[in-house]
Each structure stands twice: as structure tokens, then as C-alpha cells.
Amino acid sequence: MDTTSAHEIIRLTISTILWASAPVLAVALIVGLVIAFVQALTQIQEMTLTFVPKIVAIFVVVIITLPFIFSRLTFLSNRVFDLIVSGGI
């Protein structure tokens, strides 16, 4: 394996991780900000109020974006397997 192949695999892996986790992280950030804003307005400092809606939102987003995540991971694995077959690794 030369440095170009290693660089390609690392680049693909990092971009796949970023793209696959971006929807979940964005929703967690938005829900967290909304909950913090509501808590600041109402001065309700209940700890379960911060976790339960965030967990539910993340679970729903994972279910909705599962085909997208699967396609990204499939693309990465196919690319790595193609490099292995071609003798790049």
C-alpha cells in the first residue's frame, strides 16, 4: 500500500463519518438549543426535560436517515474492497 491509497482511505473514512453523523448531530444541537431557550424563559431546571426530548429526536432522526447512513457506509466499504481487489492495499 502506498501513501496515496492510505490517504484516499483515510479521506473517505473521515468524510463518511462526518456525512453520516451530521443529521443526527444537527438535530441534537437544535433540540438542545430550543430546550435551553425554553428553560431559560420559564426558569424550569428539570434534568429529565433536557434528556428525554433529545433522545427521542435523535432516535427519530436515526430511523429516518438510516438509508442515507447505510448508503454512505456501503459506498465506503465498496471503495475499500475495490482497492483491495485491485491490489492497492
From TrEMBL:
One GO-annotated biological process of the protein: protein secretion
Q: Where are the transmembrane segments?
A: 12-39, 51-70
Q: Does the keyword tRNA processing apply?
A: no
Topology in the lipid bilayer is annotated as: Multi-pass membrane protein
Q: Looking at the record's lineage, which domain of life comes first?
A: Bacteria
User: Which keywords has UniProt assigned to this entry?
Assistant: Cell membrane, Cell projection, Cilium, Flagellum, Membrane, Transmembrane, Transmembrane helix
**One Pfam family this sequence matches:** Bac_export_3
UniProt keyword Ion transport present? no
Spell out the subcellular localization from the entry: Cell membrane
- List the GO cellular component terms: plasma membrane
Q: Which family does it belong to?
A: Belongs to the FliQ/MopD/SpaQ family.
Query: What's the protein called, per UniProt?
Result: Flagellar biosynthesis protein FliQ
